[in-house]
Write a structure and sequence with these properties.
The chain has helices at residues 2-19, 30-37, and strands at residues 54-59, 66-74, 79-84, 89-95, 98-102, 112-114, 119-122, 128-132, 137-145, 150-151. By secondary structure, the protein is α+β, with helices and mostly antiparallel strands. It has a single domain (26-160), classed as Jelly Rolls (Sandwich).
């Protein structure tokens, strides 16, 4: 009986694993990534929503269930207040120095300087904040959507400001 249950469980594990969508084949040079960056749509799903911040989708659709990767372009002298996302995300700093911290309120003392090559996590529903200095930053973020952005203090949410 136990053997039948194990075989049944193995069968369903394999069946479900084989139905998960696979990633598309993709190889992009820096020039090709930059070309995609010019194709931003203004849709900032998964980003701070601040004016000037741009998002380019490299893979998937952050508004739907499934794996996605976005590039976040953040201008110099930008402060992003405490917010969270519903999904777990991993990020890598590609250019500029990104200053990143965790907490429910922007706290300069909690920022860690993240130069290019740095990686960090954005655990689901964990508030975090960031800032750029004199140079813009590009951050690559991957997660499993759908994603969203929820500001800890709704008064800081740019989508709610007129």
């Amino acid at each position: 009986m136990l053997r039948r249950i194990l075989i049944f469980a193995l069968f369903f594990s394999v069946a479900f694993a084989s139905t998960s969508p696979s990633l598309p084949e993709m190889r992009l040079t820096p020039e090709e990534v930059n070309a995609r960056a010019t194709q931003t749509t203004g849709n900032q799903i998964g980003s701070s929503g601040l004016a000037g911040v741009q998002t380019t989708v490299l893979c998937g659709d952050p508004s739907r269930a499934g794996f996605y990767t976005i590039l976040l372009y953040v201008p110099a002298h930008t402060t992003i207040r405490a917010h969270s996302h519903r999904d777990n995300r991993m990020a890598a700093v590609l250019s500029g120095t990104w200053h990143f911290g965790y907490g429910t309120a922007f706290d300069e003392g909690q920022l860690k300087n993240m130069p290019p090559g740095s990686v960090y996590s954005e655990p689901a529903r964990v508030n975090h904040f960031a800032r750029t200095d004199d140079t813009p930053s590009i951050v690559q973020i991957s997660g499993y959507g759908p994603t969203d952005t929820v500001y800890f203090d709704s008064a800081n949410d740019p989508s709610k400001k007129q």
